[in-house]
Amino acid sequence: MQSSDLTIAIVGATGAVGRIALDLLEERNHPANKIVAMASARSAGKHVAYGGTDLTVIEATPDAFNGVDVAFISASSAVSKQLAPEAVKRGALVIDDGSAFRMEESVPLVVPEVNGADVEWHSGIISIPNCTTTPLVMVLDALRSISPITAVTVATYQAVTGTGAAADMELIHQSRAMLDSDPVVVEQYPHQIAFNLLPQVDDFLPNGYTKEEEKMLNESRKILHEVGLPLASTCVRVPVRVSHSESVTIEFQDAVSPDEARAALSNASGVSVVDDPQNSVYPMPLNAAGKDEVFVGRIRKDIAHENGISLWLSCDNLRKGAALNALQILDEVLKRDCLKPSK
Predict the structure, then answer these.
(1) Are residues 105 and 23 located together in one domain of the fold?
(2) Does the annotation mark 244 as catalytic?
(3) pLDDT, tens digit, for every residue of 290-307?
């Protein structure tokens, strides 16, 4: 079976990730009559451009999934919890972009380059990890082939589109207001994001970490199949529109040289090494935007840990961090002939 034979629903078609999913399907020449654009009731009736035509957005209701083969859901957790089981009842495979099902034991959490085989045991729903987790586990998976990993420390620099299209517009409006000395309106975040950094992504937990930081820990362990992996992160929202970046320190059981790390990363699927700091060549969110790869650079020996390597990465959070990963999951499902759950 080819993906072009499938009727695909995009739930959240008017949102930031949904629009990228449509762009990627258009790049694949997926037939327009095989796409169902869905969104909330307030967006029903709107039109989204696709392949030289317009798709009319319909309200995402349970019965809207009749005849749908695959549903990509990029909406709130509440919407996913309501609609995903209904889509499955009607015979659709759900690939969910939210956090609603990620940590359920019966739901695979998949980055195809790392744990593609996990799609084989789905029961109708497959989850996509957080857009900061995806590039991190791709890097960790490549490097653990050299030596077992004993600890990971991460600081993230997350673009506003990770919150959604409204946050993207707020950054633009706030930036204009600052430059014009006009009042700044704050709605999407606890504080102004323009010309600022917020060391808070999601709500804080009693232990002082945020839910986003907890997601990175739990999701990484599940995807890598390393339930005891020590990982600590500090997640920061930055005034960048597209592409998340991360500063990562990895400690290994054995000594690992920067050259060994570069070689392993260069051979990893979906990873591109951009590492010539003497000539100011390194990954940047501006260059990662619109690209499919995870870009890695600043690869160096960590001087604070005997067996440590430090590096920097950038990755388009809307593409590989969400929409592209969803399509790659579908590719993996079709390759393994497991569109429907095994009996």
Answers:
(1) yes
(2) yes
(3) 999 999 999 999 999 999
Taking alpha carbons only, the member of 332, 320, 300 closest to residue 24 is 320
We report the CATH number of the domain holding residue 15 as 3.40.50.720
Q: Tokens 């500090």, residue?
A: 234
Catalytic residue among 244, 305, 315, 338: 244
Length of the chain: 343
Q: What share of the chain is helix, strand, coil (3-state, %, to 5)?
A: 35, 25, 40
131, 173, 235, 315: the active-site residue: 131
Across 205-212, average pLDDT = 98
User: What domain range includes position 49?
Assistant: 3-128+322-335
**Residue 70 falls inside a structural domain:** yes
pLDDT band at 286; cut points 50, 70, 90: very high
Token digits of residue 88: 């499955």
How many domains are there within the chain? 2
Backbone dihedral angles phi then psi of residue 242, each to the nearest 5 degrees? -135, 140
Together in a domain, 224 and 329: no
Q: Is the pTM of this model over 0.70?
A: yes
Residue 343 confidence (pLDDT)? 62
35 burial via Cβ count (<10 Å: 0-12, 13-18, 19+): buried
Give percent of the chain with pLDDT exceeding 70. Answer: 100
- Which residue(s) pair with 93 in the sheet? 70
